[in-house]
Protein 1
Amino acid sequence: MRRASGSLHLASFAWTLALAGCGPGEARVTAFRASVIERANAVEQRAYTRPPADPARRLPGSFGEAFDAAATERGAVEASVETSNRCATLLGDKRAPLDGPKQDCLKDLETTSAALTKLLSLRHAERPGPPPSARPFAKAAPGEKVHRSLLALCTRARAEVRALVARDEAQSAASTCTSTLAVARDYALGSAMTGALAASQCIKDLEEPCADAIRALPAESEARPRRRQELEAIAATLPRFPDVFETELVGILLPLCAPLFDASDRDKLEPRARAVVVAADTAEARSSSRRTMSKLCVEGWDELDLAARAFRAPVGSPERARLRAEREAYVTTMPKTSFDKFEDGVAAAEATVRSLSKL
């Protein structure tokens, strides 16, 4: 999965070394460090809530840890993406009878049924959260591989929903939908930009097959109000873009600006954020001009902090308009990027689930 271009913008200023003018004063650098420390600690301490796991099926630990450990099942669904896509399309064609190629698809999907069941059961983990490599301040490379695993799982679930509806098993199809949407939600909570967008894409891809599954439930079925309640709970606990953006912002700026943080600054950071600063504060990083780095980091933070504050203001509000105008007027070395499409992408997940809950 390609890293979101917004993330590339957030990181790109670190490589811009040809700058004119003087660096910021030490007071601004000190204020920058204090602000980043406060925000980084808030990200690391942030607790995400969602409906508690079913006590009868509760799994210890976090969703992300369990998802990361299920390497065999993730590998199986990743290997089945082509088959899953083909069968989801074929089984979604209501005009064709359930024979011949459709029957072949049902048999093909059986080979990954156990892997799908295992991965969907992870929604019963005690806590939500992304896999370790996709968390903010992760020591490993960004979690594109596990993002691919999530999207492969969602592709396989889409084919499963189509297969169940084709066999007139609407209740099982609707259950698969809510389980997959809950998995996407658990993955997104605590993720930065790419993880949240991967979960949003998963949810969007499930919209049509899940709508068909819900519509196929008998009107008088007790499953309808239960599914509606589940979907409303998922929609209410999906991550909000301001949290996603803030996680992305500090997750990138903290390591890139690590040489500006002294020992007393590090002591103020939460453990994972502190480990990132220590690891990133290399001799090579320190070889850059402190004036250059200070200018890049302070300007980048000031400008993107205005963007973060604007995203926290209600859409269409005077406060958001004021902060956006202030950001637009801010003079910086780096070109400014609009993050509206990323906000729209994350918000689309909630809109999709709420739409399904009204069926």
Note: The first helix runs from residue 5 to 12.
Protein 2
Amino acid sequence: MLSWCLGLGLAVTPTTGGTRPEVSITLPKELEPELHDVARQIVRAHFMDVAVVVVLRTAAPEDDRPVADPAKSPLPLALLWFEQEEGSLLLLAQELETGRMYQRRVPTGNGLSVESWELAVVVAREVVLGLLERHELSRARATAAVPPEPARQRGRLRLAVAYVGSKYAREVAWASGGRLELGWEFRNHLTVAASGSVWAPVEVHSHDVRLRVTRFPVEAAVGYRVEWDRIALNPELWTGFEVVRRQASIQRVDPPVTAKALHYPFVVGGRVRLAYRPSRKVPLWFVAAVGASVRVTPTRWHIDTGSAVVSPLTEARAAPDVLAGAQLSL
């Protein structure tokens, strides 16, 4: 397209973001060259209070329709041009954001004059004001649709209660207990936790010996937590010790002889926790985990009955562990 243009920066009411939309107006080909200066003054006067940048273009005779150049305009709003018809001037406007076309007819009588051109500019101003209002409303909706960034947090407090189970000895079918845990979930996905458990007492009868065992494990764990929406995976490594209280009664003597002792075995282990949150509005997670523990310093279960030394309990060096419960992440 062969054309030349004059940009008129009409700095009036600023728009959101500090950048004003640009409107390109192409003068009619039928407008006499000596009227171009007057035409620009009329445009300047009527668009002085409109918050847009107006670019006036003078089209060559062979130009058919102007084309937008996005590289030269940071915020293009519309293209306006005119086509001469018998007894009227047809105003055509293209909204560049949506591609919609608008048209208005302005009566010109016997020909295009200064008076009819000023009337056409008034109509063009009303069209631009309507497009500008649509543009501002669209930007306001787009801004409202962007969710605010969540507040930066150092992490979340974890409070959990759970059932724990294990098979730590051949003579014990299954041991069960309760667990209380307090931990912290960092923003970089690392987790740390401390926990304590109370296991239900286990009784074993062997070689006229009745053995009663109660365990109180204490653990410290470190892990890495990954969340997908309402599901979280948290592998952990942990270490700790157990307070093992044993009470052995020799039944073949009368009265029975009872001996009590405390042991503190050192234990290490690992587990994989899987958590599910039913509702995003409530920080409650249901947790299940499987793992294994290794007793670095196993407990000695030898008991001297007076006539022989017996071992009523055969402790496993490595034992499977399970966990199921609920946790709050605050």
Note: DSSP finds two helices and 19 strands in the chain.
